[in-house]
Amino acid sequence: MSNRAVLSGRHFMMGNIACAEGALAAGCRFAAGYPITPATEVAERLAERLPAIGGTFLQMEDEIASMAAIIGASWAGQKTLTATSGPGISLMLENIGFAVGTETPCVIVNVMRGGPTTGIPTVELQGDVIQARRGSHGDYQIIALAPSSVQECFDYTLEAFNLAERWRTPVFVLTDAFLGHMREEVVIPEPDALRLVERKRFPAGADVETLPGFLDLDVAPMPIFGKGHKAHVTSSCHDAHGRRNVIDATALDVFAKRLNDKIETHRDEIVRVEQDLEGAEVVLVSYGSIFRCARASVEAGRAQGLKLGWLKLATLWPFADTAIAAAAGKAKHLIVLENNLGQMVHYVQAAAAGKATVSFLPPRILGEMHEMEDVLRAVKEVRA
What we know:
Helix content is 38%, strand content 18%. The chain is α/β, with parallel strands linked by helices. The protein has two domains: 9-193, Thiamin diphosphate (ThDP)-binding fold, Pyr/PP domains (Rossmann fold); 273-383, Rossmann fold (3-Layer(aba) Sandwich), CATH 3.40.50. β10 (282-286), α10 and β11 form a beta-alpha-beta unit. The model has no long low-confidence stretch (mean pLDDT 93).
């Protein structure tokens, strides 16, 4: 196995492997996980590659421990990742909430599969998108990216680390069983061409007691364990020094709003949308692997003279409400394609706010890709 952290060049690789390589290129040197279909290849790749480049991979006893391990390693100064699927995310959610509340940068790859409960391990379903946003209790913001190609599995995983480091927060990469096991060409840039972001750190020797920062107006610098900082990290409501305050509503008000606002007030810097709306009367809104169906249907429909466009939600959270509203202002109809029973469609309807009709199109069979003929039939029906 190569001892190069960045495997620059052209490769033919699986989506799960591309996620692992994106993490390594971003500077990830610690990962922990527990085997689960269809995400296991991410852990297998990192278990091979990390020791060869001076990193560490731990197979934990379960997903709860895996999430705890990457939080601890992040506070020791490492860029960290875990990878799992829906049932594993359900187990991790308490610790994901802990990571949000303690402002711990880390990346969680969720290779989504059929559910609920154990479901079908080998069948793709975009069933976890709301779970990623609202799975833990309380008010908070989360960042989640949804790649639609194997190349984007690499690119978005690297970008997830940049976002986690910039905003000191957990970041999801929501891929799925289709992409995880799909093989396509991936181009990995030379190391000097990669844009990498590093977290803000407390100055050397600074004492958190005399240099507040846990609740900075933007993003607080992070003390690193073992680097001489005196830091108290608590999951409870805390003040700017990290000290618990569990009796004061004013303290909770500041605590919750700061965690929310550091993401909410920077939505325009975080949200990523791709679109081709030129002259479109009907716009297909999609994300992840199902975007491939939407784009192919637009190309086929345009060949038939249909005025079609597409909009891809590269960032699922924060939700791209401004882009959706703008698309609704130009088109007459939005059709949301999802491989579930309708999760993001409700957010699209709210953002469209009556500017255009919004309809939902699930696949013919849950867990399968949309048939192009079904998509084009739906387009013709809304135009009638």
